[in-house]
Amino acid sequence: MPKKVALKSFAWVVWPLLGVGATFLMLRMQQPTSVSSAEPIQNASSASAPSFTLTNVNGRSVSLSDFKGKVVILDFWATWCPPCKQEIPDFISLQSQYASRGLQIVGIALDQPDKVRAFAQQNGMNYPVLFGTDQIAALYGGIEGIPTTFILDKNGNIVTRFEGFRSREDFESEINRLL
Q: pLDDT tens-digit profile of 154-165?
């Protein structure tokens, strides 16, 4: 009997790890439409944001250059990440409140496309949600954990990099000084 319990416990540990591994392998196989050949950023303060063109949840190409002249919150996230999901209502609210003043939030999902599409629709995400890749994550200095969020000024320079959950107030404080 104890051997059976040990095997069941082992299965509860192994199956989720296999699922996470499969997700990362799938993300590695996806390719962006195009990515600049710029070197990865080393310092998130005052570095020019690497350009990219990625596909959004509607199948359209979206480039970082589409948001030239705006303050951009660039959020790397996934549907399976509780802190990421906790930030999204604040991003929706900030997009609604500050879009007319020049704010653009852009989500870069490091997740399975079908899950991202369903999540974006169910949660009424009112900003572009793009499918990211390891290549994009590497260009942005390596995304070791999510959420990782960059704030870009109107000139496309990275002025702030947040790792982990941040409150609406943290984002609002940063964007108010840039708008």
A: 999 999 999 999
Q: What are phi and psi of 129, to 5 degrees?
A: -120, 120
Length of the chain: 179
Order across the sheet with 157-163: list the strands.
47-48, 157-163, 148-152, 71-77, 103-109, 129-131
91 contacts 75 by C-beta, under 8 angstroms = yes
**How many CB atoms within 10 Å of residue 83?**
13
pTM: 0.76
At the top level of CATH, the class of 31-178 is alpha beta
User: Which residues, at least 6 apart from 9, have a Cβ–Cβ distance to it below 8 Å?
Assistant: none
Q: Which long-range contacts (CB under 8 A, 24 or more apart) does 160-166 make?
A: 160/44, 160/45, 161/44, 161/45, 164/83, 165/83, 165/86, 165/87, 166/87
